[in-house]
């Protein structure tokens, strides 16, 4: 190269003019490959189902039996919180799980009703039913419409990839939500546990501080339900303490004691169901202590939800709060 040619200044880089049309084409218009990857991401089962093996199956069997035994009474309890018949807790306890495995996996959350949302649904029904007297005997139709609407909104948030909003939720707010939820649920259940919730002037769905005060105001009305509830609570904590202590003393058996501790809820439920049967089998009309009673067999109330403008207009004011509770509660459960 000659000295003359080496002195020629290099040609500078010229930035092309920005074009809105070109930006939209590069970023907003989906490509075939991008669309295919997006659809695949919605069904991650396609990436692991062909690798499923016996080890996974045995683990899933243990998890399924454990969660299944617990979720049956838990689902019915949540239905009671939502002011719905107990059978709806059974329906919702397995329908979500039967579909969810195709879309994702979760080791933290049982797909189904959650405590605070069930309580909120009960409060919504209490507010809405006076304005919709035609649904007084069928409140599950309102709950079904509300569930479909909330499900569509949450699904839209997921499909539009708006989950990043969750990253900005303050941790103290989640901690406050978890604490407040625990207090609210505990005070809502303690009257039933102690058996003094039968007092006519005692509203267990009142604000938490009022329920707390009324509980001690009517504590003299506690009955035999207190013995059943407190003894079951004692056995639950006794088994957990015993398994933790044994696991520390015999580390080689720690995994066995962990599973025994996990199954404590199922054990207590089965034990007290047997006790209830022996005590109340000849007194079903007037049981010695509170029981759920007759649960309809089959799927008598399962059907396509009725979504109409009358119900939607009545519940519209509760939608924002319900969406926030749905998102925060599931985050709280995962963090727990």
How are the SSEs placed, and which strands pair?
Blueprint: H1 3-6, H2 20-27, H3 32-42, H4 45-48, H5 54-81, H6 87-100, H7 115-128, H8 139-159, H9 171-194, H10 208-217, H11 225-249, H12 254-262, H13 264-280, H14 309-315, H15 319-335
Question: Which key terms come to mind for this protein?
Answer:
mainly alpha, 15 helices, 63% helix, 336 residues
Structure explained in plain terms:
- 63% of the residues lie in helices and 0% in strands.
- The chain has 15 helices and no strands.
- The protein has helices spanning 3-6, 20-27, 32-42, 45-48, 54-81, 87-100, 115-128, 139-159, 171-194, 208-217, 225-249, 254-262, 264-280, 309-315, 319-335.
- The chain starts with a helix and ends with a helix.
- The model has no long low-confidence stretch (mean pLDDT 82).
Bin the strand percentage: under 5%
Average pLDDT: 82
**Global morphology:** globular
Largest sheet: none
Number of helices: 15
Report the helical percentage. 55-70%
H/E series, N to C? HHHHHHHHHHHHHHH
Determine the N-to-C terminus distance.
71 Å
C-alpha Rg (nearest Å): 27 Å
Structure at a glance:
The chain is an all-alpha fold. About 65% of the residues lie in helices and about 0% in strands.
């Amino acid at each position: 190269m000659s000295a003359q040619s080496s002195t020629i200044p290099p040609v500078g880089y010229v930035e092309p003019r920005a074009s809105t049309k070109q930006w939209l084409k590069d970023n907003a218009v989906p490509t075939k490959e991008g669309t295919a990857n997006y659809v695949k991401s919605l069904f991650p089962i396609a990436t692991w189902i062909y690798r499923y093996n016996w080890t996974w199956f045995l683990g899933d069997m243990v998890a399924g039996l454990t969660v299944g035994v617990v979720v049956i009474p838990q689902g019915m309890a949540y239905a009671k919180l939502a002011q719905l018949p107990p059978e709806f807790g059974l329906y919702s306890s397995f329908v979500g799980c039967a579909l969810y495995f195709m879309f994702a996996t979760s080791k933290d959350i049982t797909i189904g009703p959650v405590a605070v949302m069930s309580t909120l649904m009960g409060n919504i029904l209490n507010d809405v039913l006076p304005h919709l007297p035609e649904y007084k005997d069928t409140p599950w139709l309102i709950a079904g419409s509300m569930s479909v609407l909330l499900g569509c909104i949450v699904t839209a948030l997921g499909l539009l990839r708006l989950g990043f909003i969750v990253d900005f939720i303050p941790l103290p707010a989640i901690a406050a939500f978890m604490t407040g939820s625990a207090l609210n649920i505990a005070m809502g259940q303690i009257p039933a546990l102690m058996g003094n919730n039968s007092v006519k002037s005692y509203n267990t769905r009142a604000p938490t501080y009022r329920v707390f005060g009324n509980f001690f105001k009517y504590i003299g009305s506690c009955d035999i339900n207190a013995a059943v509830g407190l003894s079951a609570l004692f056995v639950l904590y006794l088994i957990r303490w015993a398994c933790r202590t044994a696991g520390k003393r015999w580390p080689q058996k720690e995994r066995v004691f962990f599973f025994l501790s996990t199954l404590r809820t199922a054990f207590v439920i089965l034990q007290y169901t047997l006790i209830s049967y022996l005590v109340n089998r000849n007194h079903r009309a007037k049981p010695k202590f509170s029981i759920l009673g007759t649960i309809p067999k089959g799927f008598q109330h399962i059907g396509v939800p009725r979504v109409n403008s009358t119900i939607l207009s009545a519940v519209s004011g509760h939608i924002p709060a319900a969406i926030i509770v749905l998102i925060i509660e599931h985050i709280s459960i995962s963090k727990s």
